[in-house]
Amino acid sequence: MRGLALAAALALPLVAALELVGEARIALSPPDDAAWSAVAGEVRSLARGGALVVTSPRWAEPHLRQRLGDDVMPLAHLARGDVDRFERAVEVGLDGRSSDELAGYRVVDERRVGPFVVRRLDNPRPDPVRFDLVEALRPPHATVAGTDPEARCFWSVRSPVVSGGLGGHPTLPRQRFDCPGPVWMDVGVTVIADERFRPRRCIWAHPFGRGDKILRWDEVPLAGARRVVGHHGMYWVVERDRLGADVEIEVRVDGVSIGTTVHHDGDGWAPFTFDLPPRAEASPTGTIEIAIRTADAERRHLCLEATVR
């Protein structure tokens, strides 16, 4: 028994050394251009119809997107709010790796392409989006206003593109709602890095110093819909010290509150779900408002996404 125990103890360093050699081999021998082109061609064929494309490890993503472009790997997919909304996915795993993000998906096909394993997966319980409030953040659907003092934000397609730098606000696009006050009070679609430094596409909506900042969407199709599903977060560099004030996010449908969630520093990319009220005899469309407020607006870099499902 002592001999077996000694052999096992001696084997552990050997196994660790072999793993390090394997990692070094991968690092020193990355896929060449021909390998990337071959796997990109396979993915382009499998991803037709809007399937989500995921790479494992994540650093492989820009290499694949360089060859596939926005039509196969659009920003809305790369900086997705969640994977539940997709019916299908194509996963590209270097040396057979897999992504924990797709753990709930079912593999329906798997093939090797050079150093990659390409898997086609189905979502057994897809939660499709009926209306995306991020995509609809523009006239005629959307307006933005403040309550104390009353203020209106004006839609612009020629605002200067600005970025706050390290620890500051994310890049604000040319097309956005210009609000009273400093530029970081404006409202627009951007991308933040969450607690795992994954990109998240969302609506930048820094609260005002007083009152509510109200994001409003009119003529939202609600017939047959059941829920408002979304996420809220902040750029992780800002919230990781857990020193900022809480931010309340209230969702209203046709003037009636259906729920309030609170973002606490350190929450990361946090989900929320609110049930829609019964609309058996109501209009097939309605108004959704998201009211954002805080007791202290200092560095409250809130970003959120929401969908009707």
Give a description of the structure:
This protein is of the alpha+beta class and 309 residues long. The chain has two domains: 92 residues, no CATH class; 178 residues, Jelly Rolls, CATH 2.60.120. A seven-stranded antiparallel sheet has the order 8-7-6-11-16-13-14, with no helix packed on it. The longest helix has 27 residues. The model has no long low-confidence stretch (mean pLDDT 92).
In summary, what is this structure?
The protein is α+β, with helices and mostly antiparallel strands. The chain has helices spanning 2-28, 33-46, 61-68, 75-78, 236-239; strands at residues 52-56, 88-94, 106-113, 116-122, 131-132, 142-147, 150-156, 176-178, 188-193, 199-204, 213-221, 227-234, 247-253, 256-263, 270-275, 285-294, 302-308. The model has no long low-confidence stretch (mean pLDDT 92).
